[in-house]
What does this fold into?
Amino acid sequence: MEPRLLLVHLIRENLRLTGTHIGCDTSHCGACTVLLDGRPVKSCTLFAVQAHGREITTVEGLEQDGKLHPLQESFMAEHGLQCGYCTPGMLMTSVAFLKKHPKPTEDEIRWGISGNLCRCTGYVNIVKAIQHAAATIQGGA
Ligand code: FES
Ligand code: FES
It folds into this structure.
């Protein structure tokens, strides 16, 4: 493996997991967010070798046994997406966020997703989707 290969390129091109998107070349948009040992990282800012021996979760890993993650269900129910380009990154950030903040306020949600840009939705329905998922996860806990 090329030592300079970026993690996002390993994921998309070598592993063919194209759910992880590239939306910028400035580490700004968050479309490339994945979980590294459970913590959200922008996979365009890491070399693939930096992930050696560590656990990576991409958006493809959210579905379990044919069942969507509550956040995926909530993004559908609350129309938390339009073009969907930002959605994989939003979901991965939100998964980690809700683990840390199971009962978040709206302000906390807005702060939590502030590293992920969406050009379509105006964020209102994304916030609603995360609130919906938080309630679902709490209800099932
Ligand atoms: S592709 Fe935009 S932050 Fe990684
Ligand atoms: S839904 Fe289009 S960029 Fe967010």
Remarks:
- The beta strands are 33-36, 39-42, 56-57.
- Residues 81-86, 118-121 surround FE2/S2 (inorganic) cluster (ligand 2) (CB under 6 Å).
- Residues 109 and 127 are 7 Å apart (CA to CA).
